Here is the input.
Amino acid sequence: MATNVVRRWQRDDLMKQRVLIVEDEFLIALDLEATVEGMGMQVAGLANDREEALRLAPLADIAFVDVNLADGPTGPEIGRRLAQEHGIAVVFMTGNPEMVADGVKGAVGVVQKPVMPSVVEQLVKYLAARRVGMFAVVPSQMTVFA
Here is the structure.
């Protein structure tokens, strides 16, 4: 019985994770938002530059961050700050994974665009489980930073 209570608590905690989408391509951001919300999870907000991403950071637990944004190639710095200053689980989603190939301190990993909705779902589940200390399988499309 206690195990079932813990599992239910962990499952409930998984669904309370809020996702920040840092993406300057509006249609891609909307697609990510629809996928996350379709999973029954909340989107903390959409940001297309550093200023907006950092303003929304206190509302988020997980973030998908593009490398090249409306204010230039600021994604790596944003990802580092989100992870280190706000404790957010960060995954880069970019068409330029080589720009973060050496890793970004605090960030979890990178996925090359285009990213299918099923992969987004796997990433959200993995990151949410990781945040609450549950075992989760790393999505095969993600390169994990050391």
